[in-house]
């Protein structure tokens, strides 16, 4: 065992070298992101068939497309707070029971209402994981590896999203196939549930509740380190935090507001552009656009992988500022070049896609580092929930902008959102990469 009892707890738990359990808890967590990407990607691939088969109205199609996002909003908001009150581990396991069962039941959905409700439930369960998953992982992670471990979550979301799009395109043929494809979301969910059974509670959360001896046993059993109860007790604060009130209290509020603006400014243009990619290519007079979409999907994956290095090597603040700067410039350039050939247009599109995918890794890393242990799941859940409002707003507003303003001014408007994020980050972004989280 690693002997660390001569160091303060804040320097001990997250300085234990990376070991097999760190890898295990990372796999436990990023499986949820793969599942989320898969479930959201699959509904996008199947929505045209569902719309035609069930004669859905435009409103029903929109609600079905956003159903998991709506559920995710409420799941993040509600169960993030529950994770701070009762612990990470129970929420970490039970939410995937809900996701697995609801995913299977999609096979028997007989119309819009039943499928909408089931996907709300799935989204609710996934929302819990967006709050509790990164929180639990961050509290086990070695400080030096934390960026890579947390940013891997976004990479796996992208992999799940792309896999779902490919499967949906290849195997959609008739009603039974879309039922099987929808229900196939239960497969990754069941795998995640299986590997999570027996997962330990976060020692950081136990310490924050004064349950020092339990934390010591978990650190010894899973992290193979010997930390004295005296050291652990120095960070014991058994009183409950104030929840959402304390998240916006003096001293913490500036970090909360930064997280809200940072996260929302990144995801609003992202979801808007990639939800309506075929419409955008149509506005650019590109017939079909399938080849271009394949190229962008490839760069979406490459960007996510490159982002693992990006997050690990750069400070959080520098990585955020550089990302917002390049993304803003890319969309401005895209707006200016709308009358150019598709070859020229694809340059800013590819740059935006690559950098956006890399920068998205920060949305799994930064939020967990902005809050103290007693508020972490609540705060991360809040940021995720509000980012879903931004995502929904982007997907709602973009088609209206394209119709009223055209492609150029629509891109300029999305660039303005990123510019706000850039200015806010320059002014308020803290540096958290060296911060101890326990």
UniProtKB/TrEMBL annotation:
CDD domains: MFS_SV2_like
Membrane-protein topology: Multi-pass membrane protein
GO cellular component, one term: plasma membrane
Entry annotated with the keyword ATP-binding: no
One Pfam short name: Sugar_tr
GO terms of molecular function: transmembrane transporter activity
Subcellular location: Cell membrane
Superkingdom, taxonomy of origin: Bacteria
Domain named Major facilitator superfamily (MFS) profile: residues: 25-433
Signal peptide: none
InterPro entries: MFS_dom (IPR020846), MFS_sugar_transport-like (IPR005828), MFS_trans_sf (IPR036259), Sugar/inositol_transpt (IPR003663), Sugar_transporter_CS (IPR005829)
Keyword Transmembrane helix on entry: yes
Transmembrane portions of the chain: 38-56, 62-79, 91-109, 115-137, 149-172, 178-199, 255-274, 294-311, 318-338, 344-363, 375-398, 404-426
Record's keyword terms, sorted: Membrane, Transmembrane, Transmembrane helix, Transport
Protein's name according to its UniProt entry: MFS transporter
Species this chain originates from: Rothia koreensis
Lineage of producing organism: Bacteria, Bacillati, Actinomycetota, Actinomycetes, Micrococcales
């Amino acid at each position: 065992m690693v002997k660390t009892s001569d160091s303060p707890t804040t320097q001990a738990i997250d300085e234990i070298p990376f070991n097999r359990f760190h890898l295990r808890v990372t796999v436990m967590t990023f499986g949820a992101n793969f599942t989320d990407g898969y479930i959201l990607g699959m509904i996008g691939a199947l929505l045209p068939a569902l719309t035609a088969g069930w004669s859905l109205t435009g409103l029903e199609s929109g609600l079905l497309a956003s159903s998991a996002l709506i559920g995710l909003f409420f799941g993040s908001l509600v169960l993030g707070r529950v994770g701070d009150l009762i612990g990470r581990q129970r929420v970490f396991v039970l939410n995937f029971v809900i996701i697995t069962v609801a995913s299977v039941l999609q096979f028997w959905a007989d119309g819009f209402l039943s499928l909408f409700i089931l996907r709300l439930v799935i989204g609710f369960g996934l929302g819990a994981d967006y709050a509790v998953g990164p929180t639990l992982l961050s509290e086990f992670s070695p400080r030096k590896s934390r960026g890579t471990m947390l940013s891997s979550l976004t990479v796996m979301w992208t992999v799940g999203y792309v896999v779902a799009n490919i499967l949906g395109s290849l195997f959609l043929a008739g009603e039974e196939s879309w039922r099987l494809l929808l229900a196939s979301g239960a497969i990754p969910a069941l795998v995640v549930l299986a590997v999570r059974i027996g997962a330990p509670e976060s020692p950081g959360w136990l310490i924050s509740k004064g349950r020092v001896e339990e934390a010591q046993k978990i650190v010894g059993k899973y992290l193979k380190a010997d930390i004295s109860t005296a050291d652990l007790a120095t960070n014991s604060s058994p009183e409950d935090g104030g929840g959402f009130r304390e998240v916006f209290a003096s001293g913490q509020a500036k970090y909360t507001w930064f997280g809200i603006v940072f996260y929302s400014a990144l995801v609003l243009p992202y979801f808007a552009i990639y939800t309506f990619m075929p419409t955008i290519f149509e506005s650019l007079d590109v017939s079909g656009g399938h080849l271009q979409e394949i190229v962008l999907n490839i760069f979406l994956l490459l960007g996510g992988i490159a982002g693992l290095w990006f997050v690990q090597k750069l400070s959080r603040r520098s990585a955020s500022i550089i990302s917002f700067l390049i993304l803003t410039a890319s969309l401005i350039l895209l707006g200016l070049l709308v009358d150019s050939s598709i070859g020229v247009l694809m340059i800013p599109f590819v740059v935006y896609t690559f950098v956006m995918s890399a920068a998205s890794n920060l949305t799994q890393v930064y939020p967990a580092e902005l809050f103290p242990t007693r508020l972490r799941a609540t705060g991360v859940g809040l940021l995720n929930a509000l980012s879903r409002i931004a995502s929904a707003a982007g997907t709602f507003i973009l088609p209206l902008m394209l119709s009223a303003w055209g492609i150029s001014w629509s891109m300029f408007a999305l660039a303005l959102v990123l510019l706000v994020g850039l200015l806010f980050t320059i002014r308020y972004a803290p540096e958290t990469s060296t911060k101890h989280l326990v």
